[in-house]
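ok trying again, last paste got cut off:
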Amino acid sequence: MISKALAAFMAVLAFCVVIDVPKRYVPQASFVGGIGWFLYLYTYNLYDKVWVATFVSGFIIALISHIFAKVYKAPVTIFLIAGIIPIVPGGQMYRSVYYILMSNADKAEYYIRESIQVAGAMALAIFVTDSIFKYIRMSFKKEKKYKVPKSSK
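nice, full thing came through this time. structure:
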């Protein structure tokens, strides 16, 4: 699994170069992708469900992306888009189109359903993480807004 995570790190690094991620953020974005893929493989080995592995890894990818965005004062999307690439259901979509063209409706339906589950799990993981961070941000703003100023005597 570690070698596959390193391969994902290198793939995300190459993807960062292609999409022109600022050079100072490439190692961090690659780290997010490598960790995300490692967690995907680990969770898949535990539960044997693609959508569970995708949700867990997508949640952690989004979580780390938000943390890195705060630490490095950069947009979340720099880390999130690059980091989520390894878990995008490209292989499932390819297989579904392949089996449609080969007139194998059963396999095509299976891969289409799996693609939709994976895409939904990714979207839900990102949504949940964004909602948590938005709630935290709002609670800090309310806390600052309602602080009672010290009286000057």
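cool. The mean pLDDT is 89. The radius of gyration is 19 Å.
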